[in-house]
Write the structure tokens for this entry.
Amino acid sequence: MNAYHRIPRRTVLKGLGTAIALPWLEAMMPRTLRAEVSSSPPTRMAFIYAPNGKNMADWTPARTGTEFDLPAILEPLKEFKDDFSVLSGLTLDKARANGDGPGDHARSLAAFLTCCQPRKTHGADIRAGISVDQIAAQKMGQESKFSSLEIGCDPSAQSGNCDSGYSCAYSSNISWRGESTPQAKEINPRLVFERLFLDPNQQADQTERVRRERYRKSVLDFVAEDAKRLQNKLGVNDQRKLDEYLSSVREIEQRIDRAQNSTPQYEIPDYPKPTGIPKDYQEHIRLMCDMMVLAFQADVTRISTFVLANEGSNKSYRFIDVPEGHHDLSHHGNDEAKKAKIRKINTFHTTQLAYLVGKLKGIREGDGTLLDHCMLVYGSGISDGNRHNHDDLPILLIGRGNGTIRPGRHIQYPKETPLANLYLSMLERIGVQTDKLGDSTGKLLDLDA
């Protein structure tokens, strides 16, 4: 066994109609750097969106700096308090009416990453702007198999009137490749899995896919011989890392199969259930989280967006004893009972975020963890769902951005600081220098490590 056998960064395990990208391994580093094991892995960016705002009294810490206490909604993230910062005071002005009347939900999602005013139309003449993830993808996309990965749990509609004269394209798409070109998200974890691991140079035809389903084979069964040959060339640390990675691939396959064939444990009246979508909403979210983690770990993409539910969603959360619709409850009118239920929904979402953060932090990569090499933004384009305001948004910045960000703080920015300023700061950290994004006025201060 040669611990210093050099393998190319783009090495994949191949089998019939299958290609599995590999995680970051020591054997991929230049020989002169292996003794340090400090060659910097790539930086990943992700944007996770939850609709309808928050109950802000249960979100905003009372103190700034490092000595802040976690309010109720952020309590599920207590294990990772040193890995994220709460950014208060950021504003999404282009989600405001600005003379266009009602439609806050549609504007909120469409403007969240573009920071541009969506054109009020429910026809084909939609227009928003290029989103920050796609600006990053233009820079980083050539370095990975996919320039970006767009996922979610509600389908992307591209037409129709969904919010006071705004096209459904606005309220269901967060990623925009061009000002009139939304990037539809994939909501079926099996299709995401196949996209990640089917060999694009050997596209399996329908007969092959049927055969694989018939024999219930794992993608790992098709690359077993290639994996065994590679294992014999790796050092002990890389062998362990590869074993853990391939085990997680198999475990996710098994969960996808179980999710598709399970019986729903509760009724979710407002939840679409196309074939292949898990019937359990939490399992759906977590499988999609796992898809993002696998994609980052294998470096098949470095940019991702994840919409937990479309903006304005009236999904029921009966499984956490909240049978009412989310959007209806967000207009709570300061009714304490309704606010308590909104807090439960908000906390459910941050519990799923904690699952994602834990997965990323549990993967060793280089001299740190996969989370250390990420910049994740979690939040909403609406602050208080009852007021429909777009200032002082609920925003978290998670990860260390490859050592360029110092997390573990509550930072209060001046009133009306554009959310776009955060995105300029993130783009700078991946080498994208731009003076303007949407309504930006400059880069955010105080993020540096």
About this structure: The longest helix spans residues 236-261.
